[in-house]
Queue: 3 jobs
Job 1
Amino acid sequence: MTAGISLNELQLAARNHGMPLEALKHEITPLGLHYLLVHYDIPVVDPATWRLTIGGRVRSPLELSLDDLEARAAVTAAVTMECAGNGRALLEPRPVSQPWLSEAVGTAEWTGVALAPLLAEAGLEDDAVEVVFTGLDRGVEGGVEQLYERSLTVDDAARDDVLLAYACNGVPLPPQHGFPLRLLVPGWYGMTSVKWLHRITVVDEPFTGYQMVTGYRMRTGDDDPGTPITRIEPRALLAPPGIPDFMTRRRFLDAGVQRLEGRAWSGWGPIERVEVSTDGGGTWNAATVGDPPGPAAWSPFAFDWDATAGEHVLCVRAHDATGRSQPDAPPWNVGGYSNNALQRIAVTVR
Ligand SMILES: Nc1nc2c(c(=O)[nH]1)N[C@H]1C(S)=C(S)[C@@H](COP(=O)(O)O)O[C@H]1N2
Ligand SMILES: [Mo]
């Protein structure tokens, strides 16, 4: 475990919790076990006065209440979301930010309206290039005061799986997940899915807000402008088998056949193959992969391990249909993003 977590990092970690890995046993993550990431404060929003505006380079600006949105055709989709900083605390040296290990993931059943028909209704002007999504939460980051906001190109915003979600697992969004409305961009790292959404602005040049130009870029050093973080890299995680030691989380289990189970996902394409190693990555075995609950959701996998007494290190590795996989050791980057290196679980078999 990486040493020297600061009180500032602990403060972030105590606010922004991960999904306990035993929750991988649920296909849909129960509300409250889904990971949480909030840059600033959770806004308190009165749904009676809240409005969504769609403006900028459009022919007919729109203003919609929550009732207006709920009256439109509803779409529900199971979507796996992961924070781009997942795995950050395992990088050396550790980039100082929310110190995730591997648990910043969850799969919810999101309900809302498709964005594309709303954009079509507003009517994009010919010079439209990007769509900016603005949340209600304000803070200071990197010395810059800002509302949390991110953009998508017009083409990405118009994809038919992009939703404006007002419900999660069948109930209204809880305050921490973006009440009353959030953007949901399946397959992309979580930062894209702007919570507490209240303004959509169509613009005629690329948006240069902090979360686009300074944050969420793959940078090798301070002088490197980097490249934008977009889709989720493949990852497989095991629900840790057996029982844990309280402090170290080392696992204890009995000798004999043990079913190892977990879930694997990628934002680039379907999961094709998952491999499990019980000797720290020396040799690999094919796991059985099941169907995901949706095209942008994780796939279950299982492997029956004939566990022998002694010390073992379990590893898993996902391969997606685009040929992407997971590295043994992650390449370092300034922001600590997209670290999808192999999970390693220390196990004592009795
Ligand atoms: N308005 C707003 N939207 C936001 C954020 C935020 O801080 N403010 N955090 C983003 C990040 S970094 C992630 S990983 C996801 C987390 O969504 P969740 O907390 O619902 O899991 O929300 C994204 N949307
Ligand atoms: Mo994130």
Job 2
Amino acid sequence: MHHGYRAPADFEAVPVGVYKASTVLFPNVAAMRSRKWVDKSAYTYGLHGTPTTFVLEERLATLEGGRHCILAPSGLAAIGLVDLAFLQQGDEVLIPRNAYGPNASLARHELARWGIGHRFYDPMRPQDLADQLSERSRLVWLEAAGSVTLEFPDVPALMQVVRSFNQRRAEVDVAPRPLIAALDNTWGAGVAFAPFDWGVDVSMQALTKYPSGGADVLMGAVVTRDLELHQELLMTHMRLGLNVAGNDAELVLRGLPSLHLRYRAQDAAARRLAAWAQTQPGVARVFHPALPDSPGHAFWKRDARGAACLFSLAFEPDVAPSAIDAFCDRLTWFRLGYSWAGPMSLCVPYDMPGFREGPWPYAPTLVRLAVGLENVDDLQRDLAQALLCLRTA
Ligand SMILES: *Cc1c(COP(=O)(O)O)cnc(C)c1O
């Protein structure tokens, strides 16, 4: 809610004004020639920022403990911006095996066409990241927690691998291009996880989720502390013509003041439901970083200050996939739909054998639940009545 930036306008209200413009008028040629938008000291064209988008950027940078922020039209566009700003032909990007699917898909299809390679690493084994690095490595993506199975990695250990690699590179190379670490902080949302505390270079967030909180806008943010990295991102962003509309920026600005309250409320509800779900027949395993047997629980406990509204259910191997579909269909408060962190609880089934490599000792369908802002007793009753499907099928 509070931040250092003051828009150069003489109207101060609690909400930020919604400015919309393509053209910004200049009083004379000298002003047209001299105005610089890059440091937010002036306005030149709608695409280069308005008072509304500059304020949102400042607030998000403050929230994340960074210094600079750039907005993108979606979370995925923000991932693409980071890739395109830092990678060139011949480089390689490293992606955790449990990453948000479209991040990997972008690398497999778009980046590959530009001669940029990618490798996957096991985020739960820092040594695997070390083993995958090569002289072509330029960018490492991190995610805490993983998108669907919610493993919480040892981010300090992964960052130690990045730092050692950069030190070795600096010793042998006269003009080293350091390996950059970017963390998808959508889960932590600037509330539960602070990537810059661990030396991460770039924090990216889907504002679509918590910061908006309304399930009514798509937007992404890329936050940095380092000015040079920010400027590289800013130039790529400008050349690509990525824009965020004033009305959409307003929706996120409206969501931000209640971000912490919503995060805490949804966290408490999700933890209660996740712990309860563990006791239910047919449920083999519940993934939620706060549960002691969830992968990476100790790292979550050490490094995070809360948990997002997500938990995933893995079912006993003898539960038929049709029974799991019936469970999802029978839910009434949890609705079927993508995204999360909005007011409504949501449910998505994932086909795990197609989704990830390696053994999967449970029924093939995993169900990820996102807890909204409904009454938690209603949600528990809803899950209980839908889980009866597992017994009757
Ligand atoms: C939703 C999501 C994104 C992408 O956000 P969009 O705005 O939907 O493009 C990226 N990363 C994670 C972890 C997400 O959950």
Job 3
Amino acid sequence: MTEITAPKSPVTSAEFADEIREQLKYSQGVTAEQATAADVYVAAAKAVRNHLADAWFTTQADTVNGNTKAVGYLSAEFLMGKQLENALLNAGLTEQFDEAVKSLGFQPKDIVDAEYEPGLGNGGLGRLAACFIDSLASLGVPAFGYGIQYKYGIFKQKFDEDGKQVETPDYWLNNEEPWGHIDYNRDQKVSFGGEVVEEDGKKVWKPAWSVRAVPVDYLVPGYKSQRVNTLRLWTAKSYDEFDLLAFNKSEYMDAVKPQVKAENISKILYPEDSTKVGKELRLEQQYFFVSASLHDAIRVFYPGQDKPDLTTFPNKITFQLNDTHPVIGIPELMRILIDEYGYDWDTAWGVTQKTFNYTCHTLLPEALEVWPASLIGELLPRHLEIIEKINEQFEAELKAKGVDEATAKDMAIYTGDSVRMAYLATYGGSHVNGVAELHSQLLKDVTLKNFSDAYPDKFTNVTNGVTPRRFVKLANPGLSDLITEGLGTDKWVSDLEMLEGLVPLAQDDEFVKKFAAVKAANKHAFVGFAKDHYGLDIDENTMFNTMVKRLHEYKRQSLKILAVISKYAAIKNGTVSADDILPRTVFFGAKAAPGYYLAKMTIQLINNVSKVVNNDPDVKGKLAVHMLPNYNIEMAQNLIPATELDEQISQAGKEASGTGNMKFALNGALTVGTLDGANVEIRERVGAENFFLFGMTVEEVDKLYADGYNPAKYYEADPRLKQAIDLVAGGTFSNGDRNAYAPLVSDWLTKDWFMTLADFSAYADIQAEIEKLYRDPLEWNRKAVLNVANSGFFSSDRSIEDYLERIWHTGPLA
Ligand SMILES: *Cc1c(COP(=O)(O)O)cnc(C)c1O
């Protein structure tokens, strides 16, 4: 890697204060004396954005004029988190900002807190996209993130009096949003519906309606790279705002119909995670942003050219498809090349296949997107024709390869009834990757086995990562300072494998004690955060044990809550003596998709267990449980550094990678987890003796499915489990109502698809080992230090370097 230098501190804090004052005066229309924290936040955001502008322009110019292939990261979600602190860090303005706002009479923290977190993603997949564009910019690789600027992001989660999840809309654009720059002059037209006709022997699509895709540009500053890339999020506008004729007839609702229809496309993020939602609007969203992005890339790389030579397109930019959501881009590029630019099929296919690559994010078959052919035919008739033709060509290719007919049929992209987007992506691009070693292997062995047999060279792995800027440097300043002290340099922030230099320090008791002090300070800080944000009183002299992630059956929040209930019962019954109880505070955070019945019921159960346990004087000081509302990036940044034990307890073979697991290890939490996703690689790197492993392996899970799984057997066999489930069924957490959780209880006892019950005993047993270690703070913290020291591999910088080498075949700008 080339040596990178920090930008010279461009201004003094007094000058930066003046810049903020100027923004307040000329842009906000308030004086420094009138300004609130929210005003100063907007002004500071604009001031820092100005500092990044020149680097943004040079990066764009070098991207277009240089010979370095760019990366286009196509993703329906970018879960960015708050921007101000990150922008200040990367602009080298953190200290100037702190001093400047103090001189204006504010606390830096209050200004940073005034930012409203944009929630343009559901969870791991969207956060991965955000980490990746941060790393691309930090590595100096020319890149565009392309997505949708949803008007409403992921819902805000609250709980009602019964502990049920209540979803409220996320009005994130209700106040001035200073980061996005809307560029009406770089718009694109995206069309839908209508029919395909033949004119002069050529297919011509006559769409029925169109929307105007307007880009909103976000700066993506690299850390110490002097590069600023672009995140271009599309917003949908109507061409015919208003039907005056209807208005004049007093048909007011009809008058705004065209506008409503068009603008609906970017109105809301689908609040789904890991499940497929077959909604017409969702297909419209996908096509909307992908079509606009492909046309935009042509505009950017062939400026002002009427007849560009698009056979060079794959040398200009390579597109990564983040899951199947943008896969409609494959037939769209074919259509653009053939219908709009007159290329023949084979040339178009060569360009298209070279341009795209596909990241698969799941193993759950129900999460692989399949669209009804009739829906595609209605919305995108020309694309359906192209997909049919791609499928014909694919079948011929398989036949030529000697693939038998039955197998070829199983592999069909187009079945006559439906279109399988994962298969289209696999055939239509150059590479397919899974997101952790185990996941990539299972893709080849199971999910996409036939494809891997027919096209073995396409398949590769890139293990996920997280950005050390946000998730260590910003989230955990105490640990960051200690790491810098230990290594004698802060270069680790952009070269995270340097953390290995801490391995010898794990044997230095003084260093380990300093680490323990940082953890204690982070716990103390989180107690304050929890008091401010949730009104909770938390005992910081307890073990902080955290499970935060989307609520999904395969992630098995049920396993955790059953173990908590069992512990509660043991304390109540006196089966454990007071001396043997290790005081713990258990934190959950999880949103459930609004239509996901069992997931929502699990949230309700956790909330009501929390109520009972936290109000029971018998367990006071020994066990507390909190379901924190609205898990988001801000909560992650505050809770993860304070966590001592984290939970990664999905059923083996179901979590593709996980990235929460990486954030925790990098912040010195010990993990209790299964051999699933990236847990496998984390454990390999941090050492088996520094990781609490339990539960069935993928092979054992498969065997149990094959042998016939009977969860009731496990319920009968372990009295701890039986007691926990009986308490739920008996109404202990529902004021005596025995029906409240009946669907959940019945699922556990008769179905339990993700084998929570089968893994319960191993999970309950390993708690003793965890608690024994925790009673020896020096040894616990030594292992925590070793987790930090050996987790440098899980930087998203490393993930991006793997993509560059294995898939994109490009690199930093010269
Ligand atoms: C990291 C992160 C996730 C992903 O967590 P997993 O445990 O990998 O599922 C989800 N949501 C937020 C807010 C995150 O920061």
